[in-house]
TrEMBL record:
The gene is fbp. This is Fructose-1,6-bisphosphatase class 1. Its main location: cytoplasm. GO terms for molecular function: fructose 1,6-bisphosphate 1-phosphatase activity; magnesium ion binding. Pathway: Carbohydrate biosynthesis. It comes from Roseivirga pacifica.
Length: 328
């Protein structure tokens, strides 16, 4: 039985983390500190995003990342901020990041945790002032503390996550996360530098009338995906596709809906990355009563084989995900 961490709306993230920690037997505070370190880095990135147009931080960085994407300056800046904050925080032994081909070993040998992160999700939206996000997963390391990081430490199935969440740099900035006891959302109050509990025990509607998919690739979708898109249109559902997964996911979490990045001819395994996009949002979705699959199996059951592997992603209201993947 998931005990809700009951705190009045208006409490701040720090108090909530402390309350949450008490709910965990033998919690020694490291995970609490890790969450605080992520939240802090989010404040720093939030400020840089809000000033992106003023400071010389928009545009392309001039490198290609392991994804074959042109890195944006803010991709690189956000990656540095989160990596530095987690290194300094001392609770994380290693990071896998969308923006780094190899495992980032933080040389914190005593640390218990591994973080997988998409430091900036929705990069194509940075320069056009549309919402973007950060996505993170937290795992316990498997190999003994002090020993070198092993592949088994970083390639864990999503079901092994001890925490997962996202930051949405939107019309307001929000920190939304779970440690397996439900999902809670905090709205950032810049004048105080505090995240305030604004969305307690978030639940995703079981059904919805919003579908998020890039219909530009319609003719390269598999037949069952085209059929589902047609069915949505026949029912007069709303098409909402922001091009920022975190923003689309968050709206569907609140209002009900489905986000699909299916297999296409260009991307047979879809575009989204299992380790630092799909697993975290799949945990959040399930904790809020929703569903997340790759069209055939539960995202959280997938045993990863590569740091940057892509999977088709169907996530959102349970009824919609079931229908969209029926006999996929
Ligand atoms: P990222 O910016 O971290 O590389 O991820 C962007 C993702 C996701 O946020 C968004 O929904 C999707 O890419 C958009 O892809 P398409 O432009 O191919 O639709
Ligand atoms: Mn990218
Ligand atoms: Mn992304
Ligand atoms: Mn990214």
């Amino acid at each position: 039985e998931k005990s809700r961490i009951a705190l009045p709306v208006g409490s701040n993230l720090d108090r909530f983390i402390m309350k949450n920690q008490e709910a965990f037997p033998y919690a020694s505070g490291e995970l609490s500190q890790l969450i605080r370190d992520l939240a802090y880095a989010g404040k720093v990135v939030n400020r840089e995003i809000n000033r992106a147009g003023l400071a010389d931080i928009t545009g392309a960085y001039g490198n290609e990342n392991v994804q074959g994407e042109e890195q944006q300056n803010l991709d690189v800046a956000a990656n540095i901020r989160f990596t530095r904050a987690l290194k300094k925080g001392g609770e994380v032994a290693a990071i896998i990041s969308e923006e780094d081909e190899e495992i980032i070993d933080l040389n914190n040998p005593r640390s218990k945790y591994i973080v997988a992160i998409d430091p900036l999700d929705g990069s194509s939206n940075i320069d056009v002032n549309v919402s973007i996000g950060t996505i993170f997963s937290v795992y316990r390391r498997i190999s003994p503390q002090g020993s070198p990081i092993q592949t088994e430490d970083v390639l864990q199935p999503g079901s092994a996550q001890v925490a997962a969440g996202y930051i949405l740099y939107g019309s307001s900035t929000m920190f939304v996360y779970t440690t397996g006891k439900g999902v809670n959302g905090f709205t950032y109050e810049p004048s105080l530098g505090e995240y305030i509990l604004s969305h307690q025990n978030m639940k995703m509607p079981k059904d919805g009338k919003v579908y998020s998919i890039n219909e530009g690739s319609y003719y390269s979708f598999e037949p069952h995906v085209r059929d589902y898109v047609e069915a949505c249109k026949k029912r007069g559902f709303s098409a909402r596709y922001i091009g920022s997964l975190v923003a689309d996911f968050h709206r569907n979490l609140l209002k009900g809906g489905i986000y699909i990045y299916p297999s296409t001819e260009k991307a047979p395994n879809g575009k989204l990355r299992l380790m630092y996009e799909c697993n975290a949002l799949a945990m959040i979705a399930e904790q809020a009563g929703g569903k997340a699959t790759d069209g055939k199996q539960r995202i959280l059951d997938i045993q990863p084989t590569d740091l940057h592997q892509r999977v088709p992603f169907y996530v959102g209201s349970t009824k919609m995900v079931k229908e969209a993947t029926e006999e996929a």
